[in-house]
Design brief:
The complex is a heterodimer of chains A (176) and B (402).
Chain A (H helix, E strand, L loop, with lengths): L1 H11 L1 E2 L10 E3 L8 H4 L1 H5 L5 E2 L6 E19 L6 E8 L16 E4 L2 H4 L4 E2 L8 E11 L7 E2 L1 E8 L15
Antiparallel strand pairs in A: 1-10, 2-4, 3-9, 4-7, 4-8, 4-10, 5-6, 5-8
Chain B lengths: L3 E7 L14 H19 L4 E6 L6 E7 L2 H7 L11 H13 L7 E8 L7 H13 L2 E7 L5 H14 L6 E4 L7 H6 L2 H4 L3 H15 L15 H24 L4 H18 L4 H15 L1 H14 L1 H16 L2 H17 L6 H7 L1 H10 L8 H11 L6 H11 L2
Parallel strand pairs in B: 1-2, 1-4, 4-5, 5-6
Antiparallel strand pairs in B: 2-3
Helix pairs in contact in B: 1-8, 3-4, 4-5, 9-10, 9-11, 9-12, 11-12, 12-13, 12-14, 14-15, 14-17, 14-18
Classes of the chains: A mainly beta (176), B alpha/beta (402).
Chain lengths: 176, 402
């Protein structure tokens, strides 16, 4: 039964790229010549040569707000074998996190990426924890080889939207 | 106009007692801090600034980031000098204070005044720098006071470690006759904010040095056009008056000009609201004492730059009082010099005698009714070439003037 429902969810999931609120996306410790759009934005992330790279050390903190509430099902992170991310912690609905307060809250989920995952195999999340997500913070703690620079080639978030009121569809009722 | 939260780290160690910066290193530093606070809050009203001291009994935060300039300036009073500067702790506390800022949208910046010697290793400072960069905190360092190679090297390494896209700067200020604040005004610490900082900097420089820098008269025409215009008007009138006075008394001419200029500049700078009062002070002397001087003034004004004075006189007429009397007076004077033909220039005379031009100018001026009899008289008189007696028209403006 759970397998069935899991596959049912899989069928409905969409790439949540369209629901990302780009004005609010922040990325700490990114190398400015290799910024986060290289991993997140439509055209850039397909390009294998364009990576998001870390700067001062190997950790990265990416804050992604959404334009509406979503349910997050799975995540795909592609990166090079050596410098790709290994331990990734996800936090939901926490704004403006810094490296100093990653330890303050328990993450909604902790993922360990294998080289297989780095090739594009999605990592399924604890769906129950991601039912009501307004913003997602991705904390990349370390990378595969322990090098000083972490490289991320592509990040795909997969899930569904929650039925929310479409404000544009609201029409004024004629006065009687 | 970047939205920024800034923490300023002040050095109040024993080394600040030294007098190689006038009056003391500490006082020079305090002036610079005041200037920076003003510049930051002016460039964006939502900017916040906080202050902490690095020496004394320990690192102490005097005021957490706030946009209230008064509070910031007040906390600078009664600071005690003593102890040794703790650079690393100071920067870390500053970073903590910024982390807890109320508006998370503000960019984080730390400004450090490093006067005393730096006892930390280069490595430690580089680590601190990296941590700042990781948390996207920008750092500006003002290296003054104690000068030794090691200190300079360490501070350079620190700023290099933090620097991300030229957002962090280091400035070395050697001891000398230049005040610390003046040197800082031209550095990226002030101007690095872009256009916003430079407007304030220009005003401050003008006030401090009594000169002009950047904008005319030290006031940004965008920020305060009326003030800038009033200052320009009174400046020109004062300048013309000086030249008239110079012509009168050839011996004292050079001395008078200098004195007059500096005093008039001080007057115009300090009495913002009462520029018309200072104007009238100057004018009263002329009108009451020497009518010829005024005529010379108009003459001189037109001689300097015919094209410019047409436009400036237009604005003078429109802004200064917009009364018929003043307009009539000004027209009179320009008519006079056309008639007198003192230096053989006839461009102005030609322009003025071109009735169509004059009437179009008059029509475009606010507060001037071309059908007004006095204006009509003037136009008529100009047409017939200036032979007009100044008495009649001058008496009228003189009575009702100021």
């Amino acid at each position: 039964m759970s397998a069935e429902s899991a596959s049912a969810i899989l069928r409905n999931q969409v790439d949540l790229l369209d629901f990302i609120d780009w004005t609010g996306v922040e990325c700490l410790n990114q190398n400015t010549s290799h910024p986060f759009p290289n991993a997140l934005k439509q055209g850039y992330r397909e390009d294998e040569g364009l990576n998001l790279e870390s700067d001062a050390d190997e950790q990265l903190l990416i804050y992604i707000p959404f334009t509406q509430v979503i349910k997050l099902h799975s995540i795909v992170i592609k990166g090079p074998e050596e410098e790709g991310p290994q331990t990734v912690k996800l936090y939901t609905n926490k704004e403006h996190m810094g490296f100093s307060n990653v330890a303050d809250y328990p993450p909604s989920d902790t993922l360990t990426f294998s080289p297989e995952n780095l090739q594009g195999k999605p990592v399924v999340l604890k769906y129950v924890k991601f039912q009501n997500v307004r913003s997602l913070t991705v904390f990349i703690e370390d990378n595969q080889s322990g090098s000083d620079v972490t490289k991320v080639q592509k990040i795909i978030l997969q899930g569904t939207t929650v039925e929310t009121t479409d404000m544009k569809g609201l029409k004024k009722i004629e006065d009687h | 106009m970047v939205l920024e939260a800034t923490m300023i780290c002040i050095d109040n160690s024993e080394w600040m007692r030294n007098g190689d910066y006038s009056p003391t290193r500490f006082q020079a530093q305090a002036d610079a801090v005041n200037l920076i606070c003003g510049a930051k809050t002016q460039s964006n009203p939502e900017n916040t600034v906080g202050v902490l001291t690095m020496a004394g009994k320990g690192v102490r935060v005097l005021v957490t980031p706030t946009s209230d300039l008064g509070k910031i300036l007040a906390c600078m009073h009664g600071l005690e000098i003593g102890g040794e500067m703790n650079l690393a702790a100071g920067i870390q506390v500053a970073q903590l204070a910024l982390k807890h800022r109320q508006n998370k949208k503000q960019q984080q910046r730390i400004i450090v005044f490093a006067g005393g010697p730096v006892k930390y290793d280069k490595k430690v400072l580089e680590m601190i720098g990296k941590k700042l960069k990781k948390n996207s905190v920008a750092l500006d360092v003002v290296n003054f006071g104690e000068e030794d190679e090691e200190k300079t090297e360490k501070l350079e390494a620190l700023v290099a470690a933090v620097n991300n896209n030229d957002s962090s700067h280091i400035v070395h200020v050697p001891a000398g006759s230049n005040a610390l604040s003046d040197v800082l005004l031209s550095t990226p610490i002030f101007t690095g904010d872009g256009e916003g900082g430079s407007g304030f900097a220009a005003a401050a420089a003008a006030a401090a040095a009594g000169g002009v820098s950047g904008f005319d008269f030290g006031v940004d025409p965008n920020l305060d056009p009326e003030l800038a215009l009033a200052l320009r008007v009174s400046m020109e009138e004062e300048r013309a008056r000086q030249e008239a006075a110079a012509k009168k008394a050839a011996d004292d001419s050079s001395k008078q000009d200098k004195e007059g200029e500096s005093t008039s500049q001080d007057a115009t700078m300090s009495e913002n609201a009462a520029t018309s009062a200072s104007e009238s002070e100057n004018k009263k002397d002329d009108l009451m004492d020497d009518e010829n001087a005024l005529l010379q003034q108009a003459l001189a004004m037109s001689m300097d730059d015919p094209a410019a004075t047409v436009t400036t006189r237009d604005t003078d007429m429109s802004e200064a009082a917009a009364d018929d009397q003043d307009l009539a007076l000004a027209l009179q004077l320009s008519v006079q010099e056309g008639g007198k033909d003192q230096s053989g220039e006839t461009d102005m005379g030609k322009l003025l005698s071109d009735q169509s031009f004059m009437s179009s100018v008059l029509a475009s001026l606010p507060g001037v009714d071309p059908n007004d009899p006095s204006v009509k008289d003037l136009l008529a008189s100009m047409q017939n070439q200036p032979e007009v007696s100044p008495k009649k028209d001058e008496d009228k403006p003189k009575e009702e003037d100021k």
